[in-house]
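Journal club prep — side note

Before the paper discussion, L.F. wants everyone to see what a predicted structure for a comparable chain looks like in token form. Sequence:
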Amino acid sequence: MVSTPLNTVWVFGDQLHRQIGALAVATPTTHRVLIVESKQKLASRPWHVQRAHFLIASMRRFADELRSEGFDVDYRVSTSMRQGFLDHIIDCSPSTVEVTEPNSYTARQLVASLNCSIVKSNQFLCHPDDFEMFSSGKKSFKMEDFYRWQRKRLGYLMDGDQPVSGKWNFDEDNRLPPPKTGHDRWATPQLTPLDEVDQQVLADLPDNVWGEAPDGTWATTRTGALQRLDYFISHLLPVFGEHEDAMLNSNWHLAHSLLSPYLNNGLLLAGEVADAAAQAFEDGTVPLNSAEGFIRQVIGWREYIWNFYWRYMPEYATRNSLNATRPLPPLFTKPSLTKMACLGNVLGNVEQRSYAHHIERLMVLGNFSLIAGINPQDVTEWMWNSFVDAAEWVMVPNVVGMSLYADGGVLATKPYASGGAYIDRMSNHCKGCSYDRKKRTGDDACPFTTLYWDFMLRHQETFVKNPRVARQVRAAQKLSDVDELQSTAQSMLKKLDSGQL
């Protein structure tokens, strides 16, 4: 390899954008680019095949795009990230190695140990330095407060210093159950045919991958990601709002954007996505409740979780305040083992597409894991392995804090626990299910309903002090069939552990 005395920009696999950090000011005459594909990382866990393919194919294609721009790209398939870096130093003798602040705690420890020149990241709209300004002096900081602060400083859907229409959010308008008919109203996601690059990536993946092979749902280039963004803005955002919390057994995507994988690996930037949604509202093609609901996800919740991760890591990942010790049940890796229609459908979609939308993650997968007492680190690991848009900064706060209440209420002010009634209200899963969502005892009792009440009784001393759930705890204490309920719950949990629920 020619040892031209250039600086090196080390680009990680979730920084695949020309305008991110150090790469934004690099030129082919001043910088070489290093990208490392780590065999160790690929072999370290059982990735969903679509997740592994998406990450690696995106990296390889991005390298080709940089080469077409004139960059000398050192794309290394190495035993580890560290070894790839060290081999690059030997072969290329760069003057300096610049790296944009990585997106994980472990990666930042790595680059700090290698004497790299670290450049501040602009991949998110709110850098942790900015978040310190927002949170300074506050004893607590809610997502809603952060979201409003973001709206004001970024100018989205604002009329001066007030929100357009006078309302900050349209949550109440955007929580409708699924419609009774017209389940095909949501446009089918775009597909990109697989080519020889995709086939080579699949051939190179280790044997520990699982799930159905990619079908082109997930784009692996910036051009493809931009096409997905345009398609969402034109065809799905106009009807996104009302049913964004709904679930259907016949439609896995509804009006969800399916853009999170591209936001998380850098093919899209949050600003350009939020700009497109805001422009569509200004053009009159998208109603305010849809534009606001989507922009809230992008500049509110996503950025809040990002900053929450950096504030509390690394200790946060190990929290388990409810002492949930049940290992991950067999049905999570083999959905056919369960007779629960809702859980079977969501897990089946994960196996087929490496995806579930946010309510399915929180109120089906997370909710069930919470009330069944499944270990939060096991759930975090499984979701990290399974979802095409997974990243540690996403999964740790969302699972440990939001879904499983394992942080004791630091992120969420109440446990997101519910019984079968919620599933029935927000989905069509319960109709025809083997279990009766109205029953909490007996062989056909709904596991969500039974375990919900059992969960409230198991943790009554903790939650009776929480004003947001104290009423439910007292209701559980007054049930006339507490003994039978708890007996049914124990029987269910035994079946769950053996893969028979």
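L.F.'s comment for the group: Residues 288-312 form the longest helix (25 residues). Keep this in mind when we get to the figures.
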